[in-house]
Amino acid sequence: MFDFAIAGVQAPIFLLVLVGLTVGIVGGFIGVGGGYMVTPALIVFGFPGYMASGIDMTHIAGKGLVSTVRHRQLGNIDWTLALSMIAGTMLGVELGVRLLVYFKNLGITGIVLLVTSVAVMFTLFLYTQIETHRAHKKMEKMEKEGKQVGRELQTSNLPRLFQAIPLAPIVRCRTARVIVSMWVIVLVGMVTGLLAGFLGVGGGFIRVPALVYVIGASTHVAVGTDLVEIVVSGAYGALRHSIEGNVDMMAVIFMVAGAMIGAQVGSIATAYVRGPAIRYILSYSLILATLGAALRLVYVLTGQNVQWLSLAAVVLTLGEMIFLCLFISSLVWFAVRRRGGKWVPDWVGSLVI
Amino acid sequence: MAEIDRRKTAFKFSFWLIVSVGLFWYIVRSYTSGQMINWYYYTASLDGYAVDANLSMNATKDNPVMLNIAKQDEIKGLMAIPVAKGDRLPKNANGVISLAEIKTGKRVALEGQTIKVTVPWQIKESKGFKYKDTFKHKGIQTNPWSGAWNVAMVLCLGLSLGLLAEGLTDLMGMKIEKIDHGH
After folding, report:
1. Is residue B178, in this structure, part of any structural domain at all?
2. Is residue B86 included in any domain, yes or no?
């Protein structure tokens, strides 16, 4: 047990390292900060809610940088895309925070936040799941026909629509292999930033699908590029929280230490899978987070009287972290087996490389 | 050539290991020495009495906590030190009971040179699955520079740990090559 003097709680160090490790694996793999998983975990360990948010946001900035370094080595970052998006992201985050304050003044923040979270995450889950399933089937068919299957395949027509917008300046993103109007990139940054600022999260689970389905980047590049955004928006959020006094630095550095290992595992694992595998994991993470938020919404709507709903939401969130880590590990294990010419289940064959 | 590369990766790993350990040690030391905590409990954000919240957290109507008002630079035990908005907090203070709250007299009351704390007030934050009231962190203004310092430290630590891990995999001879993004 360590005495966190600023947070005013005593908590075991290994649990914080473990949370950093698991969220590092998931975050490094699907390009999210994992705020929706870390904050409930910290509250369960006894950290006050405001402190949990501050610690989470600050650790996201550090962890994001650890993952970014590895994704840079893997060539998953499109710097043109990332830098073009930053201004839009920051503006969006600020607008989102102001919108949140507006709803706070109306006194309906809790319900609006939960309803928006459920609606956004469920819509993204549906679209990602349906599109990824189509891409997966197509890849399986190609493999059976003996055709060469690349690392990426996506079946959405949305990127073509957005790439056809002729508004100058037009930007060439070399790593993402995309030519698109700068305004589309800025707009994507702004809209995803607005949602992130409003919901109080890093926004990776919104930005990664947006980079894939709007800009047309490959999933690997979307993950790496999004992590750069997460470092910037995380650092901004961390600064605001720190000035408010919501950060206990010792808790942050224990979590970043765990994330150092987790982020390596998650980032390197992307080299073993094809794009749809990452999108599958992202969509499962979205539906599990949606269920957690839906349980909390029912808990709030029932006047916070049904205690088991709150408990179930926390258990679901913690279970999600373990489930996603196991899923990612099993994909890597199957990829290694496949490379060695050993048997793997049919459905996995076209997801790993 | 291979020899030079090995030496290079060994240097890279050693360098970032030293930087990471140094940063970790510096953060832990500034936390345990109280420097970071002094930054956190920096100034009062309202007029009132600075207290050691840990001593009054279990106060009830039947078992009130009596805090003696004193004008000192350091809180020692059951003590409350008057502070004005913007004043530097005395040592060991981690909360401020506001004058406005004392005037209402519902939760805390002024009795001569003593403050009677009957019900913990202000923050209702979740503690595990239960809610617990605390005086802590209320009425506190942190040093704005400490926010920038926190962010800078976390980013430096993240960068050095990332490069340390990169150096380690290089040293272990793990071939991590760029992914071909050809669609």
Report:
1. no
2. yes
Query: B8: domain range?
Result: 2-36+145-171
Taking the alpha carbons at both ends of chain A, their separation in whole angstroms is: 43
Tell which residue, A189, A248, A193, A188, has the closest CA to residue A4: A248
pLDDT at B3 over 60: no
Min Cα–Cα distance to chain A from B112, Å: 31
Do B125 and B59 belong together in one domain? yes
Q: Are residues B74 and B91 in the same domain?
A: yes
| B36–A50 CB contact, under 8 Å | no
pLDDT of residue A65: 93
Tally the domains of chain B.
Answer: 2
B52 in the same domain as B108: yes
Cβ atoms of residues B151 and A57 within 8 Å: no
Contact A61 B154 (CB under 8 A): yes
Instruction: Yes or no: say if B131 and A230 are a contact pair by the CB < 8 Å rule.
Output: no
Output the domain CATH number for residue B128: 2.170.190.11
For the record, the structure tokens of A237 come out as 């959020």
A116 touches A294 (CB < 8 A): no
A333-348 b/e (C-beta count within 10 Å ≥ 16 → b): ebbeebeeeeebeeeb
Residues of B in contact with A239 (CB under 8 A): 147-148, 150-151
In terms of CA atoms, which chain A residue is nearest residue B57? Answer: A8
B residues 31..50 contacting A (CB < 8 A): 31, 36-37, 40
pTM: 0.85
Query: What secondary structure does DSSP assign to B63-86, as a single string?
Result: SPEEEEE---SB--SSEEEEE-TT
Q: Is residue B6 part of a domain?
A: yes
Q: How many CA atoms lie within 13 A of A95 on its CB side?
A: 13
Q: What residues of chain A, 123 to 162, have a C-beta less than 8 Å from chain B?
A: 150-153
Over range A284-290, report the average pLDDT. 87
Q: Does residue B181 form part of some domain?
A: no
Rounded to whole angstroms, how far apart are CA atoms B95 and A52?
19
Q: Are residues B150 and A43, on separate chains, in Cβ contact within 8 Å?
A: no
Clarify whether residues B66 and B28 are in a common domain: no
pLDDT in tens, A320-340: 888 899 999 999 999 999 888
Instruction: Judge: B164–A58 Cβ closer than 8 Å, yes or no.
Output: no
Collapsed DSSP state (helix, strand, coil) of residue A233: helix
